[in-house]
Design goal:
mainly alpha
């Protein structure tokens, strides 16, 4: 069997990404990652949302979890490290980066407005909602502790 036939068989179930921008960047980064680790190319799909063991099979999480749902490090080392597809790992990382970038952008570009509005809100008259709510009694703190306990 030729190499192209093997690759077609491996990637026949992959998700085709046809979006410009971040998706194409993710696809290009994943191709570079797989070129670095050619042996992994034969085991893992380039784009998948699942997790895999070292044989390329679906990761069996129940093998590394104790009966009380805690992590069992000995079984983890005996079983397999967790492998993610390249595009899944990159998109996961980029999602955390986008949250950080959004908060950083808001701080850098809107910090003066946020600060001004926060200071102004402390000194202004209460709005209609606050005036309506002042007629109701305050909820005791222990109610929150009861509702939101673990």
């Amino acid at each position: 069997m030729s190499q192209s036939a093997v690759l077609k068989e491996i990637f026949r179930d992959t998700i085709s990404i046809r979006m410009p921008g971040a998706a194409s960047t993710c696809r290009e980064l994943s191709k570079l990652q797989l070129r670095r680790h050619r042996c992994l190319l034969l085991l893992f799909r380039i784009s998948s949302r699942g997790s895999f063991d070292h044989f390329g099979k679906t990761y069996n999480v129940s093998r590394i979890i104790n009966a009380d749902s805690t992590f069992n490090e000995v079984e983890y080392k005996a079983y397999s490290p967790l492998f993610l597809s390249t595009t899944f790992a990159i998109s996961y990382g980029l999602s955390f980066a986008s949250i950080t970038a959004t908060l950083t952008h808001a701080f850098l570009y809107f910090r003066k407005q946020i600060y001004t509005q926060a200071r102004r809100a402390m000194n202004e008259q209460p709005d209609i909602h606050a005036r309506l709510m002042c007629h109701y009694p305050q909820v005791p703190e222990w109610w929150y502790a009861t509702i939101f306990r673990e």
